[in-house]
């Protein structure tokens, strides 16, 4: 935070160069093109080494990961997740062309990291399960001068990482922060979600009355967060406001009043100095469980946002846990640039008790400002508001 | 000029001892964490039955926070105290318990009651529920206590007025090896909020 004539001057922060490494493509542009063609990354799997029953998920094959990673470095020393994160972040570091000095930070957002090394035949020591080890591996690969900051805050990690980057930039600690986020579809995660009876073996249907449950997904997503306007990509967006609030209600079920989400969005709007009607589009969480979708509908209604077009991207990527918020923000920035309201895959008939405006068909519309939200176990919620960069107001 | 903040109170749970502001509240010779923390819960008159369904990380974090927050004159309906916690082992203590339920096909029995605790931030949710904290929760992982990170992050939340107070610290557990150190940062207090003081308090016990 700088001061000018005694008045606090907030540093502007932007999301710039980015990468999505997923079942729908290994870079953001390819992913967006595949989405525009109506493709989904979800597939049905019958793999008893992962789960005794069939499940539907979005996965990146080890062959694809190795093929990509081998173009960068020798593959043997790294886990699948590390290879995905490195391959994804490598694209962003290259595109950014920033020297990795003391003013450049690194944030890693993940819920479970290399949890698959707890499997007895993983081929890696159990010490790799420590998230700080994952942080060191990524930091050392690229030669970051600063220690990696690992954020593990359930399903809001990816959105919260953006807030954390913004705060460290406004405190003057860093000029640039690279965020990389990722989680795997592991036996650990599948068995846990299945024990909640929340998993579906069909593609998920967020907000739909014929919902079937959730799908998990794996992805690595990376972005440059910067305060320097000469480091912006064409789809860059400015962070206008952000907030994170707990429901103070239940650790595994969302609040029935959408309390934490309501408060997060309200505080983010406040900081952005905007009203609910000025939001062009909401990239919502939409896990496709009744409790989650209902909670979001209630929160959006309490804010008077029931007419704002919204989607959930879980029908394309599944729920990618600690990466989901960042992945969905990156997709949002590309559709902002293209001025397209993108349809919420899997939705046809409203299945929540309050009105919300779920996008059913792609529609061209001038887009300037969007809201990204996420909610997770532990009662956490996060909201960030973005504006299309002014030089990019097509 | 940037506003300065103070540390108003702090707590430790380690070496079979619970202390607040360096004063021992409870000590016990039990080497087993579960036995120790249950005895501490009872002695400290915590009176919160949900405590018994928590995993060990949540029990540790909850009690370290409770001894500080019950000294505060908190509002019954809502409070804006951000929780910025960190540790080394994330939720691995409980992750290993979940892993044990899926490791062989013959005894495959994953339980939602265990699985829900396989995230480090769940302990922040537990504290938020008890003390009605509708505020930010963030959980960071470092291989050692990192006062600089916590200090910068707490300052950012307080200066931007996102939070009225910030409860920061370190809560780490793996089996019977555990350590909690929490401190409350706000406008008023006796101790400077800088990394030297944070380290001094961290090492006080």
The chain-level structural class of chain A is alpha/beta
Reported for the largest beta sheet of chain A, the result is: 11 strands, mixed
CATH topology of chain B: Peroxisomal Thiolase, Chain A, domain 1
Low-confidence stretches of chain A: none
Q: State the total count of DSSP E strands of chain A.
A: 18
The 3D shape of chain A can be described as globular
* Low confidence ranges of chain B: none
Main CATH class of chain B: Alpha Beta
| Major sheet description of chain B | 8 strands, mixed
End-to-end gap of chain A: 31 Å
Share of helical residues of chain A: 25-40%
Question: How many strand units of chain B?
Answer: 8
Tally of alpha and pi helices of chain B: 7
> How far apart, in Å, are the first and last alpha carbons of chain B?
35 Å
- In the CATH hierarchy, what is the architecture of chain B at level 2? 3-Layer(aba) Sandwich
Which series of helices and strands of chain B comes N to C?
EEEHHEHHHEHEEEH
CATH homologous superfamily label of the largest domain in chain A: Thiolase/Chalcone synthase
Counted up, domains of chain A total 2
Give the number of helices of chain A: 10
The helix/strand order of chain A is EEEHEEHHEHEHEHEEEHEHEHHEEEEE
Strand neighbour order, sheet with most strands of chain A? 7-6-8-10-3-11-18-17-12-13-15
